Amino acid sequence: GISHRFPNPRKRLDLLQKWIKVIGSDQFNELPSNDIHYKKRICSIHFSGDCYSPGTKVLNFNAVPSLNLSNSVVVLNNWTVLRKIMCCETTTNSMHEHDDVVKKSNLKKKFQNNGMLNKIGIRHSKLLTPKFKSLYGTEKMAKFKECLKAAEKFSDKYLDSKIIGCMSSAAAIFIKLQLRETKNSPKGRRFTLEEKLLCLSLYKQSTKSYQLLSKLFILLARKTLSTLLYQIPISTGLDKKCKTLKEKEKYCVVLFDEVSLEPQLQYDDNVGCIVGFEDNGLDRTQRITNNFKQPISYTFCESSTKRYDLANQITNVLKAVHLSGLKVVDTICDQEYNDTFYEIDCGVERIKVVHLYDSPHLLKGIRNNLLSKNLMFTINGHQREACWKDIVDLYVLDSVVQDVKMLP
Question: b/e string for 22-55 if b means 16 or more Cβ within 10 A?
Fold first, then answer.
């Protein structure tokens, strides 16, 4: 059988002492730990199958001999063999000491061969006939495949526990995808739902970056991602959510805006309807206490929405938002709106809502008007006039001193 070296005392002194205790400390004559490590060996018949790494003949990190320990011990300078004496009525525990230098040529090492050749009484495969030599090679290859399969299984478990287990969930999904699908052809690759969602999140961040990543790594095709998006049910109307929020987080504003789209009719296979007819507007809510936006309604309109249709839509949206548990403070849009304050009847109570203009668009509108017109205003009973040239002069005056500036 195979012999194993004693543990290194510099690294595993505790394990070496455990081996000595199990075998018997009286057999080593108080030898130094380094001498035991370099000069002594123990046979593999004293270790159980659990002591070996899967698919190998290497001992585990914490392997300890536990079998056939009531044996005779033969100790040589560079070799120690513990062998079991079979068919004997008595056992002897004796230590045979030799000189420090023993020629390896004088040592007759006998190994027990438990393979197929030993069963038929042949010591070497060269003595086999061609037919039996072929059968022997096939059997040997099958055993090697079993060992290789066990080693691959062990490596996968080690990869999951030691490497992938320390990663984030997204990184673990990405690494497993690359390792699993690298050996498959492009048409033979299969993806889980988690992998599809990961690729979809990368695609939504930047389509150009996703195109580059698709050349470097294994990712879903853009056509597959488009098919995945079509499976998400999206339709016009109100979406009732946000019921389990803190009291402070329920205060929100309703924003509505119009986006120009190209007129077109399209049949949606998933829903079974034609999309593109006039349906009027887009509304969404935004919390005041934190940065959170929730789309709640969208509709299609022809050119700009009529005033009465817009008032009716806003009323329905405010009622639905109020019934969902949110508390609307005001409404905001970037267009002219006649009503700056209004009340909405929500059945049991009436809510008061203030309308505000979108401040970035308000500043942009003032700038565009000043470029072509002058602004007439009154301060303390005196009528004044402002123009765009006043702002330019102020900027030039502030830019005279380079290190000191009051304007942005």
Answer: ebeeebbeeeebeebbebbbbbbbbbeeebeeeb
CA-closest candidate to residue 22, choices 68, 61, 81, 60: 68
Best-predicted range by mean pLDDT (64-68, 165-169, 205-209)? 205-209
Which of 29, 3, 21 is closest to 97 using CA atoms? 29
Neighbours of 174 (CB within 10 A): 19
Partners of 3 in the β-ladder: 43
Instruction: Report the predicted TM-score, pTM, of the whole model to 2 decimal places.
Output: 0.38
Give yes or no for a contact between 279 and 299, defined as CB atoms under 8 angstroms apart. yes
pLDDT digits (tens, 9 = 90+) for 286-335: 545 566 677 777 777 777 777 777 778 888 888 887 777 788 888 888 76
pLDDT at 217: 93
Closest C-alpha to 31, from 47, 52, 14, 17: 17
Distances in whole angstroms, Cα of residue 173 to Cα of each of 140, 153, 170: 38, 19, 5
Distance CA 13, CA 184 (A): 48
Choice between 134 and 346, residue whose per-residue pLDDT is larger = 134
DSSP conformation letters of 242-298: --S--TGGGEEEEEE---------EEETTTTEEE-S----EEEEEESSSS-EEEEEE
